[in-house]
Amino acid sequence: MRIFTVLLTSLTLLFSTVSFAKPTHTVKAPYSLTKQLTIITLGEGQIHDSFRLPARIELDQQHVARIGATVTGRIIQTETVLGQEVAKGEQLATLNSNELAEAQSMYLKNASQTHLRQLAVNRAERLLDNGVIATANLQERLAALEESQVNLHTAEDHLRALGMNNKDLSQLSKAKIIHSILPITSSIQGTIVERKVTVGQVVQPADALFTVADLSHVWIVAELPEQQASWAHKGDAAEINIPALPEAHLTGTLNYVADMVDASTRTVTVRIELPNPHRDLKPNMLASLLIKKQGTQELILPDTAVIRINDKDHVFKEINADEFELIPVELGPRHDNVRPIISGLHQGDKIVTEGSFHLNSELQNKKTD
Fold first, then answer.
1. What CATH architecture is 51-62+217-295?
2. Domain ranges of the chain
3. Residue 11 CA neighbour count, 13 Å, CB half
4. pTM for this entry
């Protein structure tokens, strides 16, 4: 009986000790540590499904002109340099062309012949009225005049194709002086971003001598893998990060998603147009494109609150004043530095977001004591 009483007393003391001992996963933060902690109350926030792509800055191809000579010839003068701002119609270089001289000579010959045949028709009409010639003679001269007029129109069209305008043609017709000099002018207002011409160079109509671009707008272009082709749509919001401009916070919407997959890269081209008033965005700069979908409301947790222990996610939850419990949680994928909470926490729970590492060190020290 005495032995039974002693055993019962021992068991009572043991259970009493266990029931009042604090669990090893809780820690009381000292005053010096509490000043380093940041605690928030959990609430719902928007989670955006997103996809990041490598991208690049390109010229806005709707405001780019590749300018060359309209006729074969030799460059005798250049009036502009790389990087120069030019106006529409401004002269970029001067060309000397034998082909242009020959075309002008042919035009003047046809003009002279047309004039002579017109005089012959006028004379034949007077002779016919006086009964000197037959109608057939007048018709023959009219046919010759029509042939000359066709040749004159053809020569005129050729000169227009070579770059001459109405003013040039009028001056040529009046002065009847051949000029083999032709200006090469800009077709748009912008900046010379490429120059491939030197004095003395012989150029062909197929040669691109200057590239002029309006740099006030640029394109952000990325390639979406074929497997995610249905993921992006025109109008989707996106963020643009440019490593060369780390402080720039740029946003936009997709204004183009290609309807075809590139057969060589197996990608779909997507594009954003951005204003570039200060010329900070320079073509060929590297960038990244973060495309975002419409957000959904979920219970979220800042990524800084999470501690990885034994390949599992944990957080410190405040259970009393300056007292915290390390609890396991199940979290979703990271989005914009937050994680959606799947299980382990509830709305209104108070969680440590800054200083968790120090709390965990305090907890480990407690376990070893």
1. Beta Barrel (2.40)
2. 23-48+297-368, 51-62+217-295, 98-179
3. 6
4. 0.61
